[in-house]
Amino acid sequence: MQWTPARLLSLRFFTIYFTLYCLSSQFITSGLLAYLWEPIVLWLGEGVLGLAEIYMGPSGSGDGVFAYVQLLLFFLLSLLGTLAWSWFDRHRISPDKILEWLEVLVRYYLAFQMLIYGLAKVYYIQFQEPSFARLVQPFGEASPMGLLWTFMGFSKGYTIFAGWGETLGALLLFSRRTRMLGALVVLGVMGNVMAMNFFYDVPVKIHSSHLVAMAVGLLLLDAPRLWSFFVQNGGTTAQLILPHFKKPRLERAKDITKVVLVGLIMAGSLAGNLLFAAKIKTPSPEKVPLHGLYAPQSFTENGIDRPLLITDTSHWQYLILERPDMAQIRQMNGKSQRYDLEVDTLRQQLIFQQEDDSPDTLFYSEPDARSLILEGRWQSDSIWVRFSRKTKDDFLLMNRGFHWVTEQPFNR
Hints:
The chain starts with a helix and ends in a 13-residue tail after the last helix. It has about 400 residues and is an alpha+beta fold. The model has no long low-confidence stretch (mean pLDDT about 90). Strands 1-3-4-5-6-7-8-9 form an eight-stranded antiparallel barrel. A hairpin with a 2-residue loop joins strand 1 (about 290-300) and strand 2 (about 305). The longest helix is centred in the middle third of the chain and has 33 residues, at about 250-280. The protein is about 50% helix and about 15% strand. The chain is built from twelve helices and nine strands.
């Protein structure tokens, strides 16, 4: 490659920037480096930029103020590093060799990220089947991200299909011979993911954009060949793959290291997803006493029958029992409350507790498979409630299923 001054500066800038980003973002070194970046980012954000106190607690979001200030820090460090590198280097380090090792870093980091996200979908843990709470939530009350999560979680088959696409891209990236194909697969898959993150307001915009940029960067290494094949409809030469090291002994050591590294990445990704899947796995209905969604049919409070009016916000709209240790009550006004739950099947009791409040104990009976009766003291009142029970199969979304033959669109 002909190294013009602009190309050389770009190479040095992106080498520093992507090295900082890869080592600091969802990588084995990111936890350690967080202790280094935290005080510097806080100083830059609060002390220099004059931002309000930057939130540092757990949030599940990758697009917080801290993340954006950290990106600015990486950008500034890359600029300063590029200037210092250009001043002191004087071409003592071959640009081709720098590009070669930058390609290795980006390729393996991208493959690692694709394995994380791909296997999380293959094991069906990034998204979950819609819960009862989601099924009874009015459609218009869902957030864009909640709508996307429901869309993905509803179809286990589609989620796994998307996961295998990401996993395939990762596996192809592990070899230089299939690097271009792997980058094309990742660009297609991650381009769609990035678009969903932006247009469904999912707070992973920063990270997904960087993964797409890395895939594009890998493809730029083959830009002339891609242009000739896809645009000019012409032929192209095979990729020239040279050893990383001139000495055979070092090249063999590199190959052994690669096998070990790829093996560790694969084993770590598989083990991590298996452990996480076991941790968050939703209990089967058979393991949850009284599992179901319950809608009140009649309600007696302090011996007085109370009509189930939508204007009476104190009434229960639904009682949701989906986990053995948690209950959720949705009121007529749409507000939901979660309670720690203890089910005593011998005494036929449900014990509800919320934070430090005193527990409420209700006795239950089941006149038939589709009914539930609760009675006892609830807060300061005596209540008797008869519920009708619904399962997920009672919802059209869950029972419609797949049809090879459809005479007319079934769009409800």
